[in-house]
C-alpha cells in the first residue's frame, strides 16, 4: 500500500517510546536533540545510502536495508575506538513508497541499535525520486583513546578481524540465485554484518593502535593507513583469512573478493609487536577471530606510502582499488 499518512504522522510512528542513554536530555520532539557529555570525547560519522546504488530490493529485504545501513555507521565508530550511543536518520521517500516497507527499514535499524543500547534522537523526512537514507551516528570514547589511521609506525604488526570476502560472496549468491555450501552464512554476512565494537573496546588499554574498518576492501583500507601514517604496509596474501568453503568459488573471485570486495565491516589494524598478546587476548575475550597478516615498514623513499602484497612468491604493490562512489 502507498503511504497514507503525512510527515508528522510518519515521524510519530517511528519515534522511540523510551530512551536508553542516560546522557540524553531531550530526544525527538523539539527542533534538536540535547545530550550532555563532559568526561569523554565525542565521535561522530555519517553515511548515505541510495536505492539501486548501495542496496537493491532484489538482494536485500527492507529490514536488512536498515540493519546494514546502521551497521556501516557503527563500524566507523568501532574503528575510532568509540562506543555507540545515538543515531539520527534523514530519509528521502518516493511518493510511491510502501508504508510497511519503510517501517521494516526502521525496524531493522532498531534491531541492531538495541544490541548497542543506541537511541534514535532525530533526523529529517522529505519526499523525492529515490529512496535515500542518511544516518549520522554519535559515540563516546575515553580521552587519549581515539584510534587514528596515522598512528601506525614501523615494526608494527598488521592484523585483521574475522574473514574477508564473505559479504561479496553473499551478494554474488543473491544476485545469481545459486545454491552453494554455507549459502545462508554468506548471505547473512552480506545482509546482517557484525560491527566489531566489542573487540575495539577490549583494546582500550593499549596506548597506540591504528584501526580502519573494511568497508571498501582491504586494499583500499590498508592504503588509507599507509597514506595517513606515511609508512608502507607489507601484507602476506596467503595469511589474509577467509571462511570455510570460500574455496568453492573461482580463484579469481576469491582473490578479488578478499582484497577488493568490501562491506565485510571487519577491522584492519596495526599495533606494536609488544602489544600483540593483548590484541590476541581481546579477540579471545570477545570471541572474534584475529589474524596477523603483515607488518609496517620503513619508507624507502619520500613518497613510499604504498601497500605491498606478497603473493605467489613475489612482492608487488597492491593497487588501491575498492568501491569508489564517483566512478
Your description of this structure?
Belongs to the thiamine-monophosphate kinase family. There is one protein chain. The strands form 3 sheets. The protein has a 7-stranded mixed beta sheet. A 4-stranded mixed beta sheet has the order 3-6-4-5, with helices on one face. The mean pLDDT is 91. By secondary structure, it is α+β, with helices and mostly antiparallel strands. It is built from 9 helices and 13 strands. The relative contact order is 0.16. The longest helix is centred in the N-terminal third of the chain and has 18 residues, at 62-79.
List keywords for this structure.
2 domains, single chain, 60s Ribosomal Protein L30, Chain: A, 7-stranded mixed β-sheet, Phosphoribosyl-aminoimidazole Synthetase, Chain A, domain 2, 327 residues
Task: Give the arrangement of secondary structure elements.
Layout (H helix, E strand, L loop, with lengths): L6 H8 L9 E3 L7 E2 L5 E10 L11 H18 L3 E11 L5 H17 L3 E9 L4 E10 L15 E5 L4 H11 L6 H9 L5 H6 L7 E4 L4 H12 L3 E4 L14 H10 L6 E5 L4 H10 L4 E7 L10 E5 L2 E4 L10
Parallel strand pairs: 4-5, 9-12
Antiparallel strand pairs: 1-2, 3-6, 4-6, 7-10, 7-11, 8-10, 9-11, 12-13
Helix pairs in contact: 2-3, 4-5
List the quaternary state of the chains. single chain
Using only CA atoms, what is the Rg?
20 Å
Share of residues in strands: 15-25%
Query: Residue ranges: pLDDT <50 for 5 or more in a row?
Result: none
Q: What number is the mean pLDDT?
A: 91
Tell me the strand order in the biggest sheet. 8-10-7-11-9-12-13
Distance between the termini: 35 Å
- Tell me the total number of β-strands: 13
CATH fold topology of the largest domain: Phosphoribosyl-aminoimidazole Synthetase, Chain A, domain 2
Helix content: 25-40%
- The helix-strand sequence is HEEEHEHEEEHHHEHEHEHEEE
Q: What is the 3D form?
A: globular
Structural class call reads: alpha+beta
Largest sheet: 7 strands, mixed
For the record, what is the CATH homologous superfamily label of the largest domain?
A: PurM-like C-terminal domain
Amino acid at each position: 500500500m502507498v503511504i497514507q499518512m503525512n510527515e508528522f504522522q510518519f515521524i510519530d510512528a517511528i519515534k522511540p517510546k523510551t530512551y536508553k542513554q542516560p546522557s540524553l536530555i531531550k530526544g525527538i520532539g523539539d527542533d534538536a536533540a540535547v545530550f550532555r557529555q563532559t568526561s569523554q570525547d565525542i565521535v561522530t560519522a555519517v553515511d548515505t545510502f541510495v536505492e539501486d546504488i548501495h542496496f537493491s530490493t532484489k538482494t536485500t529485504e527492507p529490514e536488512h536495508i536498515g540493519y546494514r545501513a546502521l551497521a556501516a555507521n557503527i563500524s566507523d565508530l568501532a574503528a575510532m575506538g568509540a562506543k555507540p550511543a545515538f543515531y539520527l536518520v534523514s530519509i528521502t521517500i518516493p511518493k510511491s513508497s510502501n508504508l510497511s516497507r519503510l517501517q521494516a527499514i526502521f525496524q531493522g535499524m532498531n534491531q541492531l541499535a538495541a544490541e548497542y543500547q543506541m537511541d534514535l534522537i532525530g533526523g529529517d523526512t522529505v519526499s523525492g525520486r529515490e529512496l535515500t537514507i542518511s544516518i549520522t551516528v554519535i559515540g563516546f570514547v575515553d580521552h587519549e583513546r581515539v584510534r587514528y589511521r596515522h598512528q601506525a609506525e614501523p615494526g608494527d604488526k598488521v592484523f585483521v578481524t574475522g574473514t574477508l570476502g564473505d559479504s561479496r560472496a553473499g551478494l554474488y549468491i543473491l544476485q545469481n540465485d545459486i545454491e552453494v555450501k554455507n549459502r545462508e552464512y554468506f548471505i547473512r554476512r552480506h545482509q546482517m554484518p557484525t560491527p566489531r565494537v566489542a573487540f575495539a573496546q577490549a583494546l582500550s588499554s593499549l596506548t597506540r593502535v591504528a584501526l580502519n574498518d573494511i568497508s571498501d576492501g582491504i586494499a583500499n583500507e590498508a592504503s588509507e593507513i599507509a597514506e595517513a601514517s606515511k609508512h608502507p604496509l607489507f601484507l602476506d596474501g596467503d595469511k589474509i583469512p577467509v571462511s570455510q568453503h570460500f574455496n568453492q568459488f573461482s580463484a579469481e573471485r576469491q582473490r578479488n573478493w578478499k582484497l577488493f570486495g568490501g562491506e565485510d565491516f571487519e577491522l584492519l589494524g596495526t599495533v606494536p609487536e609488544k602489544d600483540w598478546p593483548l590484541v590476541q587476548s581481546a579477540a579471545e575475550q570477545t570471541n572474534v577471530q584475529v589474524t596477523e597478516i603483515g607488518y609496517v615498514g620503513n619508507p624507502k623513499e619520500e613518497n613510499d606510502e604504498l601497500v605491498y602484497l606478497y603473493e605467489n612468491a613475489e612482492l608487488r604493490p597492491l593497487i588501491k582499488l575498492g568501491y569508489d562512489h564517483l566512478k
